[in-house]
Amino acid sequence: MARKITPHVIAAAPLGRASRRRHALRDERDLTRVEAIICSMTPTERADPSVLNASRRRRIAKGSGTQVQDVNRLVKQFDASRQMMKRLGRMRMPFAKERY
Q1: By the number of CB atoms within 10 A of the CB, which of 2, 10, 21, 69 ranks highest?
Q2: Confidence band (pLDDT; 50, 70, 90) for 64?
Q3: In which domain, by residue range, is 27 found?
Q4: Closest Cα partner for 56 from 86, 20, 29, 44?
């Protein structure tokens, strides 16, 4: 789904054509890398990234053709987005209707 959305977001950006093309190629490579890392994980590791120790991260990096730093970066981004979603879930939206 992100592969379908990305070109539309980049096309709307106020950049020159060459710059848009570079951004689109970089984003496509990043998505491919993330997909490879996730596909190299076992279902248990996907469900609970806290089980990832150093040897598992090395195995994932080898299986996805990336470096351990890329795996660490992805796990860190996932944790950060999880924390943000928790914070947003606790926040009360002022424009939301109250449920009874």
Answers
A1: 10
A2: very high
A3: 2-90
A4: 44
